[in-house]
Amino acid sequence: MSDTDALPGIDHAPVEAWITAHVAGLTPPLKFSLISGGHSNITYFVDDSAGWGAVLRRPPLGSKGGNAHNMAREYMVIAALAGSPVPVPAALALCEDEAVNGSPFYVMGRCAGRVVENPETVAEFFPSLSSRRRAGEQIVDVMAAMHMVDIDSVGLGDAARREGFLDRQLKRLTGVWEQNKTRELPVMETLRERLVALKPEQLATGIVHSDYRMGNVMFTADGTLSGVLDWELWTLGDPLADLAFLLNNWDEPDDDAPQVLMQLPPTRAPGFPTRAEVLARYAAATGFDVSGIEYYRAFQHWKIAIIAEGVKRRYEQGNMANQDVDFEHLSNRVVTMAELATAHLDRLG
């Protein structure tokens, strides 16, 4: 048995046979390799013997499904956005037959360039300040374009409810917290109550990626955004939720903010736009009123704290393909994100 045969989450022989039958232009045998960095759905490179390459996505090991691990739903959105102003990988094939690999999976094309995960990769891939500036502007412009997509014209208008986004999210996430929590954290309930009481009206409806940040997009070396990745949490709803999430992941070089992410954001490196510039550029591109962004930033910290608790739980249960992780950081960041959410709500008065 080779290393690729033993790769967790891939039953090599039937998966290779299925891909060979459903994706044209490849030359078996296929090699599968785990792409590091994912903390939910698992992602693998697929390479054939003639230099063809693709990417395979599957749910976490031990997953029982649900929207966040719904392969058909991910596949639907990247297929729908093909040819739109939002660059996405090519949708190549979707396998919903669990007999093939124990769970559904899909195969997509690769995008040019690379993911820029942290300040070290910024220094390597974007040595010039001009390429960093362009990358920062591109991620804002593509997000604005995503939020302005006509959801009916691309066939996504019935993919989820359009209105009542925050109501739906607050109700659903309260249940998710009850499922995910590994300990009692009263601050999480206090935050829920304040978020319900202070909830603003939804001013627009669009595609909400729900995990839109530099670590989930690909860039070419000149700073052009070549692909938006990791659509597992996408829905229809309030676009300001994505804007707030991006801002929460947009550290500046001189920030003294606590480290709540798995690694430092790329924007810790010099040369990127400031958060104020991100906010202004997005508002100019969309025409949306962004004056209530503090609420959405608080909501996103609370939401990601809930998701982070779920990631912690899955790692502790051994259900992630890569177990090389700082468990103490997984625990502490949930509490810190709750504290950050509280600070944003306090600014609302």
Are there runs of 5+ residues with pLDDT below 50, and where? Answer: none
Helix content: 40-55%
The structure class reads alpha+beta
Cα radius of gyration in angstroms: 20 Å
Give the CA-based shape. globular
DSSP helical segment count: 11
Beta-strand content: 5-15%
CATH superfamily of the largest domain: Aminoglycoside phosphotransferase (APH), C-terminal lobe
How far from one another are the termini?
62 Å
Average predicted confidence as pLDDT: 91
Q: What is the string of helix and strand elements?
A: HEEEHEHEHHHHEEEEHHHH
Overall number of structural domains: 2
Major sheet strand order: 1-2-3-5-4
Largest sheet: 5 strands, antiparallel
Q: Briefly, what CATH class of the largest domain?
A: Alpha Beta
What does this structure look like?
With 349 residues, this protein is an alpha+beta fold. It folds into two domains: 97 residues, Phosphorylase Kinase, domain 1 (2-Layer Sandwich), CATH 3.30.200; 229 residues, Aminoglycoside 3'-phosphotransferase, Chain: A, domain 2, CATH 3.90.1200. The protein is built from eleven helices and nine strands. The strands form three sheets. Strands 1-2-3-5-4 form a five-stranded antiparallel sheet, with helices on both faces. It has a two-stranded antiparallel sheet with strand order 6-9. The protein has a two-stranded antiparallel sheet with strand order 7-8. Helix 5 packs parallel to helix 9, helix 7 packs parallel to helix 11 and helix 10 runs antiparallel to helix 11. The model has no long low-confidence stretch (mean pLDDT 91).
